[in-house]
Amino acid sequence: MSKIQPNPPFSTVITLFNELEVSGLRPDKHSVGILAKCYCGLGRVDFAFSLLGKYLKLGYPPHIIIITTLLNGLIDSDQLRQAVRLLDKIVKLGIQPDLFTYGSMFRGLCRSGDNAGALRLLQNMESKAPFKPNVVIYNTIIDSLSKDRVLPQALCLFNEMKGKSILPDVVTYTTLIQGLCCLGSWDDAKQLWVEMLNNNIAPDIETYSILVDSYCKEGNVVEARAIFEYMTKRGMHADIITYSALLDGYCLRGEMREAEKLLDIMVKNGVMPNVVTFSSLINGYCKSKKIDKAMAIFQDMHLKGTHITPNVISYNTLIDALCKNKRLDLAIQLFKDMQDRGVAPDVFTYNTLLDGLLRNAQIDEAISLRIEMENNGVAPSIVTYSTIINGLCEAGQLVEAEKVFSTLVAKRLRPNVTTYNIQIKVLCRQGRVSDATKILKQMVESECPPDECTYNTIIKGFLNANDIVVALEHLQCMRSKGFAADASTASLFLGLLTAPNVCDEDKALLQKYFLEKNVINGFLSGNDIAMALEHLHCMRSKGFAADASPASLFIGLLNSANDSDTDKAFL
Fold it and tell me: How far is C-alpha 319 from the chain's CA centre?
């Protein structure tokens, strides 16, 4: 029984135990403990507890090993409260929990997200238990805090364990490095890695993979490659995760030659690419506008006998690229292919195709696809409805777009800033600028702060309605929040300076805006020199002159090392 029980099927162990009893042999406490563990492994904690009664009837005193087995069974079946009650009960009965018992409870508390409970138990253990927490217990809590992004508390616990002469191990450092990388604290993560090396704690392949992946996602492939080289020079062999992380870094930057070179090295070293590797290459070529090359790699997954089936990410990447490159027919064909091959489209797949159909004014097809989406059990998201509303708006079906927007509350979908911006655009195109202002207030009230697009859209709405006073009020509000007028908004303002239907009073307000709140500064600050010069020329043609601020910016750009020779020639 002891040799079989760690491995399924547990039913074999249960059968042997029954044969033991039938033969008249008296089970010992060890065999009862093994059977309890098997029942817990099968999810039948109730049967395991019934064994506790048999255990006691056989004359064996309660032992912490079988109690710990029952605790683990309760924890694994998500009955943490019952596990806590059992622990309290055995302590009251004078049964002393051991280190494994505490370890089980920490695992249960952290798995349920009760970090506060785990920290309280840690204090209780340190003050009352005859033994102190070990590195495994600290690692369990630090891991939970890191995953919940409570890094300051995790680092505090890390320093606390070092202060108590509990030496961190590779798991401790790797956990914290991953947590810091997830928060973008790259320098702190690297500092921990250096500390780890200085303390003669050898990073494992997981540590290196985390660092490589994090630096690649940050866009720092040079640093990622340096860590990769450091690892290999010390005799550690990169696995598929490390290679795929670095290869994805090159693909994200469009460095496809380097990605292909790394793929060759990877295969040469006996590490075969998987679906993640191929998906990264497909994504890289799609971003580089080499769709045919991406399609060729996709086909290779089927044809080269690699036994690698494209997953939903592989399909989504290609479908998205094809839609953006106006190859909708091929995207639809690929969509049908993925369903034929048993790959279920997800919400991203449907949203991408909906956007492609709507951009091609195929409204009926898009509505049919949305119905198919729901019939296939894929719930439309706020992005789905935002896409539909925008498509209807662009097709001139403003009333239908507004109807779809009004259904969002009933569908328990909370509009995001994109959804609100589209609805404001719908209302402004209908000339209902006062209703658009109400939506703007609704955004603030629903804690969805307006962005630069929101303000530009509503300002253009008021300008098109010749309500210059309110447009300038919104412009002032936008500027106070750090946003700037875009090119089309600025052009509208400039055009109104000479418009025959604009009164002298409104023109005076516009002139004051251009002279005191010069929009040229915004274009120059954003290095949009061509647009800045266009507006400067327009100003001068209307008898206005740039003040000292834009003039200084123009002169500064002449000496800037960041600007192209073409821009300097314009200046």
Answer: 21
